[in-house]
Amino acid sequence: DVEVRSVLKVLADFTGVNLVASDAVQGKVTLRLHEVPWEQALDLVLRSKGLGRRQEGNVLLVAPLAELAGHDTQARAAQAPPTLVRELLTVSHARAGDIVQLFQAMVEDDDPGAITVDERTNTIIASQPSARLADLRRLLAQLDVPVRQVMIEARIVEAN
């Protein structure tokens, strides 16, 4: 039986990782590990005591899962949602639906904002944060180019 804090200290010393343990990290654990990667050993110890870890810069924070979830919730609540800007983007040469599909593949599902297509006018209607709207404008400028055409010239010569 070894204190969890002692195991964490040994792992941190062995790997050279900066590790901070919450005051709620306590208890004993029994373990015997042979040729186990340090991250797997850390995860096993944490899981056995209902703990989790979060990387913040070059520091590894260890705390109970509920405490980590509380920090994440507070951090999300502290961040104000970005202001959305609505803009109509006219597409001249490409299909607006194709541009929107490419753009949506680049953003995450939980990102704020909406983007729709008016097929009749081939226009993109975007309500996005200003930075993402700039990305969409750049993508549109790169992809909305005319298709190259081949000119066929013929001369008819009539000889008698």
Automatic annotation (TrEMBL):
InterPro entries: NolW-like, NolW-like_sf, Secretin/TonB_short_N, Type_IV_pilus_biogenesis. Keywords: Cell outer membrane, Membrane, Transport. The keyword Transcription regulation does not apply. GO terms for cellular component: outer membrane. It comes from the Eukaryota. The keyword Membrane applies. Residues 17-65 form the Secretin/TonB short N-terminal domain. This is STN domain-containing protein.
